[in-house]
Protein 1
Amino acid sequence: MSSHAEPIEDERARALPPEGAPGWTGFAAGLKASFRSVLAYALIGTFVGYGGLCLDLGLSVWWAALSTLFIFAAPAQVILVTTLGAGTLVQAALAVTLSAIRLLPMVVALLPMIRGPQTRTRNLILPAHFVAVSMWVESLRLAPHVPREQRVGFCNGIGTGMTIMSVAGTVAGYLLAARLPPTFAAAVLFLTPMMFLVSTARGATMISDRVGFALGLAVTPGLILAGFELALLYGALLGGTLGYAAHRLRRAAA
Amino acid sequence: MSATLRDLNPYLVLVLIGFLPNEIWRWMGVFVARGIDEKSEFLIWVRAVATAILAGVIAQLIFVPAGSLGTIPLWARLGALGVGFVVFLVFRRSLIAGVVAGEATLIAAGMAFGMAR
């Protein structure tokens, strides 16, 4: 969506690398952007909650830290550890795999925006690995303002910074968990849905995204409560497709 | 088939049931994204679906809460989310204002509910 990128209102724009800057500046700018991102606070909160969950479930602090480092997808990690004691291998594998399908359209939406004519496919594996909600929202918002040849490095920088903060949050949560009163532990876990709601609402500038998001919010709870295993996917396909239809209708009317 | 995860080495579980099921979709994303034009209509649809998925993740976290968030009743979780969103809109789309208001509502409700019990 580089053609109608929203102007950045804050000082962040000045930190982005100029045209023709050396290769590492994109990475450095991305790293810096990740540490300045408001989403990073929610991310740390999410993984503080996850670290506490790992302690509750009797996993080691190393396991908790490594799971964040390698998986870097909070919903999947929560599903993994909560099915760990109760479910069977096949159940857990299925639940994690299904929760991760959402990463596919996110990767597909991001990569065409950040690659250039010279970008090799293998150079896109690392930014694809870093795709998770916070990284995706921030990359989509900021990368259009970065010179194209710097964008892959920029996204790797955002991903690296967010991974570092997430691992730190996991370890902190693991070590702190026993000491938090339950209401505050709940408040830490509430950070993620609250931050996802407002940051996605802010990032959705096209009518297709707005309608898709609103319908997803309206429809998915019903599908979840009705017990559909693939509630998220059904809700997203329905909401997103109707959002796209709204975009077509508006254009046809214009 | 009925083996639980505890019977396996936890680090093997991490790779087989944690890392790979996530990474596969990211790799497939790299594959699918090849040859898709940045300005294509298909990408507008994909992006709308991806945005709607975030809505689903939010719904999941609120309606099927993990850990101690479940000790807060559903109406309070939904109410706090609503308050946070309205404040976000009122304060010219400020993420911080929305999150602080939502969190304050949740903590207040959690304390009131905890005392009522």
Note: Chain A has a mean pLDDT of 87.
Protein 2
Amino acid sequence: MTIPEILLVFLKASFLSSGGLQALPILQDELIVQRNVLDYGAFATAVAIGRITPGPNGLFVITIGYYLAGLAGAIAGIVALSIPPFLAIGLVHAHRRIAHRRWVAGLTRGIGASSVGLLAALGYSFTAPLAAQPASLVILAVALGILLVTKSDALPLLVGGAAAGVALYLIGVPLA
Amino acid sequence: MEPPLAETTADAGLRPGEIGVLARDVPVATLFLTFAKISARSWGGGSGTIYTMNQELVRRGWITPGQFALDFGLSRLVPGINLIAIAVMTGYRLGGLLGALAATAGFMLPASAITVILTIGFSQFTTHPIGNAAVKGVVPVTAALTFALAADNAIGVLPRRERRTMALMLLYALAAFAASAIVHLSVVFVIVGGGLVGAFLFRPEKEEVGP
């Protein structure tokens, strides 16, 4: 595939999805089913890398770009990911123009309440696959306790989690 | 880096639990560096990032946690990756169009560079059992970060002095959780539904100035 082709496929996936992983089925259809330029193993690796990387979610697109065309493909991924979110500026304006009305204040609160539930659901989706593994749930509970009590930064806890994973592996209780 | 003081207070007199932007005209370089720092420090594929963004932006006195919860909700209505949309919105609110570009560039650069490096080195790393074990230890921490953020946003959004409204909002948050986690309803329905229900049922008792 040429770089402009890759860019167009990535832009399509980026514009037609919201929240990161939704781009995955679109890319899967384009790159594996239609064009047959990547296999499922490459996709699985890309998603795994995307779950470790810092910064925004959904950066697996950059890895897929790299698999398709090296550094130029990765840059196509970065560009395609960065463009659609700028539509948010229109939303900020629309919201600001009417924000002083009481019903808009209520609407704003409703969106905030939705976010709280959606974030908890996201946490649940990460937790459900861990249910069979008591050690993972202990790490989760300890990390959550530290976060709620100390308002700690994320980084030390992520390093601590990685260290716990390695320690458990070394004493013969590997995490699932 | 010292958090700069908000030079002009955009929404004067806000208490911590309210929704609002506290700073304006933040220098473009400061926005770039702040988002680059968030981008480089928040490992874990996004959940750590939302937590770190909220913490950093609130700690700097730029926005309230309630504002972050609102922006998170609005960001889910924009196509593409919503965390990037939060960077766009925050940059735009604090520094105009240039601010939005600076925040987005700062947010994308370190994370993208690290992603490329990881891609090149990944097969060596995870085929090694130690690397694999480290990745598995990070997953539960990622879940904890997400729950902690939900709790923080709940504190930021719920109006403690309006008991009835607070109870209704809590109920909607629970319904949103069930709709998304159990029924797998599209997040767009949940957010638009929240806005519609809120416009009727979550109105503030007194006239209030929004963001």
Note: Residues 1-10 of chain B have pLDDT under 50 and may be disordered.
